[in-house]
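FAQ: What does a multi-protein file look like?

Like this. Sequence, then tokens, then the next protein.
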Amino acid sequence: MKITLISIPVRDQEKAMRFYTEKLGFIKKKDEPLGGGNRWLILVSKDWVDGPELLLEPAPNHFEPSKVYQDALMEAGIPWTQFDVENVDSEYERLTELGVEFSVKPTEAGNVKYAIFNDTCGNNIQLVQEL
């Protein structure tokens, strides 16, 4: 058994796709219409194109419990998921220059350094570097 796909709930798939590709550097792998304005929108890491796929899921627009859970995590400042990076400080600088808003600046905690940013689509995302 292995992880092949994870989903992130987003309120606006087009806005999310632009953020995740233009700011974070992910690559669009699939973009298929599902009807009702929804898409099967899959991204992959440019550094690991055969790794796990990221689905930009429009669930909060159609399933109220998903929206409630997403809102609760955001309000509490809890990340939806995390992305590993080689250097949190350099990613923080790069993304800050692109206008990404961080709620937690690079912070050391044990054997990791992390930072948390707002993906502009309803989620906090954590960047993690192993020290």
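And here is the next protein:
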Amino acid sequence: MNTLLLDRTTWDLLPDARGNMAVASGSYAICQNVACTIRVFSGECYYNTASGLPYRQHILAHTQAAPVFRMQAEQAAGAVAGVAAARCVLTGISANRQLSGYVLVSTTNGDVQHVGF
């Protein structure tokens, strides 16, 4: 499976050496798609409105327990093509309520990767 390669800092498209759109493949592409799914608001992707987390409906400005967020992130990651299993690990929350952590992704080809958020 291939996907457009995104810059890790700006989350914007990248050109390849020839000036064409760069493409990611393999486990990296799967992990990038997991990161995109976790970052996007549910319904925001016009080509796949089922993708994403329900940030507006259930996460932002609501009191929510960490296990609920972990479950939602794991379900969203598990729905990505090429993911065999996903486990969300929360590592902290800052004073301004910014959640940090990662999703441990097992791909269908046996690779295990960390996808940070």
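Q: Is there any per-entry metadata?
A: Some entries carry free-text notes. For the entry above: Residues 67 and 74 are 10 Å apart (CA to CA).
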